[in-house]
Amino acid sequence: MAVRRLQIDPTACDGRGVCAELLPELIDLDRWGYPLLREPLVPARLLPLARRAVAACPKAAVRLQEEGRPATPPRGMFF
Amino acid sequence: MSRLPAGALPRLLSANADRPPTLAEHESRHGPLPTAAAKELVELAAAAALRGRGGGGFPLAAKLGAVLEQRRNEPAVVVNGVEADPFSLKDATLLATNPHLVLDGAQAAALALGAPAVVVAVGSRHRQALVGVTHAARERPYRRPAITVRTVPDRYILGQESALIGYLNGKKGLPVFGFAPYRKGLGGRPTLVSNVETFAQLGLLLHHGERWFRAIGEPAEPGSALITVWEGSGEPTLTEVALGTPLATVLGGPPATPTLVGGLGGGWLPSGWTGRWSRRDLAAAGSALGCGAAWILPEGACPLGETARLLRFAAAAGAAQCGPCRFGTAELALLFARLCGGDKAVLGELEEVAGLLVGRGACSHPDGTARLAASALAAFPDGVEAHLRHGPCPACRLQAGASPDGLQERRRPRRQGPKPATPATWSGERWR
Which of A12, B51, B76, B294 could make a disulfide contact with B189, Cβ separation 3.0–4.6 Å? Predict the structure, then answer.
């Protein structure tokens, strides 16, 4: 399976902290409450949790991309 | 072929400083508009190891190649002359005194890439540059690719390429995360965007060839570079040196006081620094070539106090989109000011906050700000200790800044007249 890389759009992120709550294995919060990626590569066992973090971000700032491919903007119903 | 001796300086600056050369004078010096096929251009830029001169230092050949790959769509060329760093005046001077060389580079690149248009973006504080480049564009007989000159507000963050292109596209001029101008830039076209000096260097390279270009400079960093030198509290001077020239030669003697190199996103060199003016040496010293500015600190000024002032300016100049920029740069400035006041508790915190800024923004403004703070701590350990032991030094206590006049924290002018009425559709809170 392709390696997935977690990516956070810092301009979209508002520091809500949902991602760090859902995925504390990979994401810490810094002193201002913004996510700090401990490790961008997502191991397979954490993939479902990572997907949940992506889906739960209220600002759609968390993205999961396949290694080697450019990031694509999130596509939602209203885009 | 070349009318100019290869080893002679200045190359970029015109010999006559009073007025820009006319097209005839320019052509007698360099020749007519050079043409090159796209592949030749990429190979030439790679062979001459030409890098962007705006601060990022990205290899031009890679940029050209990336735009070429996207040639299904008609490309565009943007010349970035915003130059909003308060320490830099090289691009404005180049546009004001030798605009044809810049336009040669830009038009030749546009021709090679098949771009129908060149946009020259000039920061609004550079009036002379605007006049110079507009006159030159009218004087030129080369109607295609068309040259458009646009003024851009003098806002620090607009110098960043994604913010600039966003602004030119009619959006907010703010940096964009994951921006790829070579895919979707100006008007959605694949866009080659680079600094004014880069295009002038490209013009020289195309006019005179790679061997001529490499006659001065270092093997890894050939050619010349423009430096805005601020000495004392007077007016800046612009000099052109070969890359790899020792700093002592650039400044006419080893600096007796600390020197800030690279503008806001650069770093401090301690007094008596003996390295060379090259990307590699400056980076190794914890500084950066950046926009190519050197501010020699006036006698009696405190480098730490000046750093605190610069950090405050940098914090206000950011776009405040990303967390590290919105909170981090301001906190860094605050901590640094407390350090100048002799607060012993902040040293560890300063290092932690500076670390949190690196590599976490959409643009590299937080990185540059962190570098400024870290380089000050590294270059002046004695000064830090003295402040922590004895409290603020006389200069810090006076709060009298020594920085150049351009470094006034610019506030937005007060809106005149009555407040505009709120639109009827306004629902209160802004939907973000």
Answer: B76
With H, G, I as helix, E, B as strand and everything else as coil, classify residue B88: coil
Nearest 10 degrees: Cα torsion B287, B291, B296, B301: -80
d(CA B267, CA B279): 12
Q: Taking a contact as any Cβ pair under 8 Å apart, which residues of chain B between 316 and 345 contact chain A?
A: 321-324, 326-328
Q: Is A12 on the interface with B (CB under 8 A)?
A: yes
What interface predicted TM-score (ipTM) does this complex get?
0.83
State the nearest Cα–Cα gap between A69 and chain B, in angstroms. Answer: 13
H/E run at residue B77: strand B76-81
Q: Chain B: give the shortest CA distance to residue A39, in Å.
A: 14
How far from chain centre, in Å, is Cα B87? Answer: 9
Choose which CATH entry (3.10.20.600, 3.40.50.2000, 3.40.1050.10, 3.20.20.100) describes domain B224-296. 3.10.20.600
- Cβ distance A71 to B356 less than 8 Å, yes or no, reads no
Q: Which tens digits make up the pLDDT trace of B43-75?
A: 999 999 999 999 889 999 999 999 999 988 999
Q: Is residue A44 part of a domain?
A: yes
Interface of A with B in 21-60 (CB under 8 A): 30-34, 36
